[in-house]
Amino acid sequence: MADLTLVDSTLPIDIVNAIDSQQFDGLPAEEALTAGMVVRVVPSGATGGYITKAKATDNTEASVFGICRKAVSIGQAPTVILRGLLDGYDLDDLDYWAPVYLSDTDGLLADAPGTVRRMIGRVVPRITGKIGVAPDKLLYVNCFWAWGVDPYVDDRLDDALNTGDTTSDGVIDALRDIVLGLGLGAAA
After folding, report:
1. Phi-psi bin for 132: left (phi > 0), alpha (psi -120 to 50), beta?
2. What is the pLDDT of residue 185?
3. Residues 30, 39 contacting (CB under 8 angstroms)
4. 127, 134 Cβ separation under 8 angstroms
5. Which of 71, 126, 145, 161 could form a disulfide with 136 if both were Cys (CB 3.0 to 4.6 A apart)?
6. Is the pTM of this model over 0.70?
7. C-alpha separations of 119 from 3, 99, 112, 136, 144 in Å
8. For the purposes of burial, counting CB atoms within 10 Å of the CB of 24, is it exposed (0-12), middle (13-18) or buried (19 or more)?
């Protein structure tokens, strides 16, 4: 697994250019953050509700909230990109449409899954308008993808499969239990 890095093309190194993005502002940083870092919300404790670096080492650390748009110090509120096209990553070694994942390294993206699989985005082409010139590579991120499936869903499906109940009834029962367990429906 190789971690992705930012490049300094025409932009200052502390800014990732976000085009057509969904962003969130207002939560303070628990630690110093740099542009392009993947962040999560601290769930509880003295710094509960603060933003900190995410990593794919376990489900808590891999609870991705978004990507930090520019460098901030402790206590400052970063702009967090939840979804959008990002320019500024070194994507030369990746193919178009290649998936990009949360890394096991604090705050970084990678070209392969970490311990906990969290896909953050894909490499997409941007046409430059010049005939015969390869399209630029941008990173399309959608951190909602990384929010993934609640661990309860994984556990319930694992229970059905591990007990050998792979019949249609067993899978349907597991899916019904998931819907009810997540509060998405009512028991008949």
Report:
1. left
2. 54
3. no
4. no
5. 126
6. yes
7. 14, 7, 9, 21, 10
8. middle
Query: In this structure, are residues 33 and 65 in contact, taking their beta carbons and an 8 Å threshold?
Result: no
CA angle 146, 150, 155 (to 5 degrees): 125
Low-confidence ranges of the chain (pLDDT < 70): 8-20, 148-188
Q: What is the pLDDT of residue 71?
A: 87
Q: Please, are residues 84 and 68 in contact by the beta-carbon 8 Å criterion?
A: no
Phi-psi region of 16 (alpha: psi -120 to 50; beta: other; left: phi over 0): beta
Instruction: For residue range 107-155, list pLDDT tens digits in order.
Output: 999 999 999 888 899 998 887 777 788 888 989 888 877 775 544 455 5
